[in-house]
Design goal:
heterodimer; A: 244 residues; alpha/beta; 9 helices; 9 strands; 25% strand; B: 292 residues; mainly alpha; globular
Chain lengths: 244, 292
């Protein structure tokens, strides 16, 4: 579960990136850099374009202008935890199958999973506290358990950069603490963590860097300097001026 | 007596054996695709696509008469064009994909019927709409079996990708799995099977072999793989019983096969252990009997 992280690490550079869909521009002219091994929270009001930015970085959405450059790795070496609402939870798949999807980069989508990979799947489930739940159908899990499964899939991806879109929404405090602990461990191993969050206490406590977004960049830097009253007020005003 | 009813028609008559082989091949190809359509909540898409191939089949018929290759090429082309255009409209405008498909299939249906009526008789139109399962020739039989084989091999290759596309399309795209490619490939398989099946059951009925066994299977087993196996089995059973009923009661074969699948669906809705009515009722009573 612990890959060797290259000394130079992986950085992500955004160069005047604009993103949108169906003719609407949601993210405007974002420029900046996520340094190797950094831990950054992306915060902002609803409709600020946080999830859209994550999708743009992952390559799921193409920028309408500007460039996203991933240095030190390929784009699909990044791991992404989507919002739970983007999953079709009614699809009948077991927890084991879902976590095993994280091994596709190594095993391919066609080949049979090796015993080693299956061991890794079981280890990943144990690490997120779901030992013995592999044969449950995903649709029968609670919101917190589903987040744990998604974290286990992230573990399987063994990526150097982790992008998480609201990883703690609809999750109880205890689960949030456990999953946050996992994130901190990954960061200590040298991985970059980028997470969309709404809980400002969590951001202040665990994330040294913050990007405050409201369609455009309001502030990006050390968390204490970004999350000021003035910046938050400006973010709300920008959102009102450019509603999504 | 049992032998006379269940087996003898297929031993005695070549056309019955051909009909059974054609319908079984169709079941093997179409039913697994139906499972994915049901699981992806795209059931109406199958119906829309079956109408979408009609103008192409009709154009082939207008240009070359009752020529199987011409009608097949026409059907595949219009089916794929409608799938592409409907997808494009859904991606570029606020219209949802189901509404976009519905709009295009209605246009297709209108143009298809118009094209057939330009040259053909009502009998020709009925053949295109409802198939000629009891009159399958070698070419038609080969076509439907080849399509079924292609479908099963293709599904084996893209099974995991399709599952990911249903469950978490963003993950598939982010890991370089080619979400749009998988989606278009899947729709192409649907079109090919509908076109191959129109000779057997007709453009309107063929979608029944795709959707009804799949919808029935969903009430008995949970996993997608098990649903595929069961849907194929239901398709085989419906073909066999439908042809027998058609033979013994002198009824049209295509509707008899589809009604066989429909009956299995209704039984599944009532008795199926995975959310069937009786199961749900029992569960409700048990919950209501609890004091807390």
């Amino acid at each position: 579960m612990t890959a060797a992280i290259p000394a130079q690490g992986v950085s992500i550079e955004l160069d005047d990136v604009c993103l949108g869909f169906k003719g609407r521009q949601v993210v405007r002219h974002v420029s900046g850099r996520f340094s190797p091994g950094s831990m950054t929270a992306i915060v902002g009001p609803n409709g600020a374009g946080k999830s859209t930015l994550i999708k743009g970085i992952m390559g799921v959405l193409k920028p309408s202008s500007g460039q996203v450059r991933v240095q030190g790795a390929q784009r699909n070496d990044l791991a992404w935890l989507p919002q739970a609402g983007e999953l079709d939870r009614a699809f009948p798949i077991t927890v084991l199958e879902m976590v095993a999807m994280g091994a596709w980069r190594r095993s391919g989508a066609w080949r049979r999973m090796t015993d080693d990979e299956m061991d890794r799947v079981h280890q990943a489930l144990a690490m997120v506290g779901l030992k013995g739940s592999g044969h449950r159908i995903v649709g029968t899990l609670s919101g917190g358990q589903l987040q744990r499964v998604l974290f286990a899939r992230l573990l399987m991806q063994d990526a150097q950069v982790l992008l998480l879109d609201e990883p703690f929404s609809a999750v109880d405090t205890h689960t949030t603490e456990e999953l946050m602990h996992l994130l901190c461990r990954w960061h200590e191993q040298g991985r970059s963590v980028i997470a969309v969050l709404h809980d400002m206490d969590l951001v202040h406590e665990h994330f040294p860097r913050t990007l405050l977004l409201s369609g455009e960049v309001v502030a990006w830097g050390d968390t204490a300097q970004v999350l000021t009253r003035d910046n938050l007020r400006l973010a709300r005003r920008l959102r009102d001026e450019h509603p999504a | 007596m049992i032998y006379d009813w269940l087996v003898s028609p297929f031993i005695e008559f070549g056309f019955m054996r051909r009909a059974l082989a054609g319908a079984w091949a169709l079941a093997f190809g179409a039913a697994p695709l139906g499972v994915f359509l049901v699981l992806r909540r795209m059931s109406l898409m199958g119906d829309a696509m079956s109408h979408a191939i009609l103008p192409g089949v009709a154009a082939g018929y207008l240009l070359a008469g009752l020529s199987l290759p011409a009608m097949m090429i026409g059907g595949v082309v219009t089916g794929l064009v409608v799938a592409f255009l409907a997808g494009l409209v859904a991606r570029l405008t606020p219209l949802r994909e189901d509404a976009s498909f519905a709009a295009f299939y209605l246009i297709s249906l209108g143009s298809g019927v118009l094209l057939v009526s330009l040259r053909g008789s009502n009998v020709d139109l009925l053949h295109v709409l409802f198939g000629t399962v009891l009159g399958l020739n070698d070419d038609a039989l080969l076509l439907v079996t080849a399509c079924a084989s292609l479908t099963l091999v293709a599904l084996a290759f893209v099974y995991r990708l399709l599952v990911a596309e249903c469950l978490d399309p963003g993950f598939l795209r982010a890991t370089g799995g080619g979400g749009s490619l998988v989606h278009m490939g899947f729709l192409a398989l649907v079109v090919i099977n509908l076109v191959a099946g129109f000779q057997v059951l007709g453009t309107l009925m063929v979608v029944g072999m795709m959707m009804l066994p799949a919808a029935a299977a969903r009430f008995w087993v949970l996993s997608a793989a098990a649903q595929i196996v069961l849907a194929c089995f239901i398709g085989l059973l419906a073909s066999w019983t439908g042809l027998l009923v058609s033979y013994h009661l002198n009824l049209p074969a295509s509707p008899a096969i589809i009604l066989g699948a429909g009956l299995t669906y209704l039984i599944s809705v009532v008795f199926g252990p995975q959310g069937g009515l009786l199961h749900t009722l029992k569960h409700y009573r048990r919950s209501a009997a609890r004091p807390w």
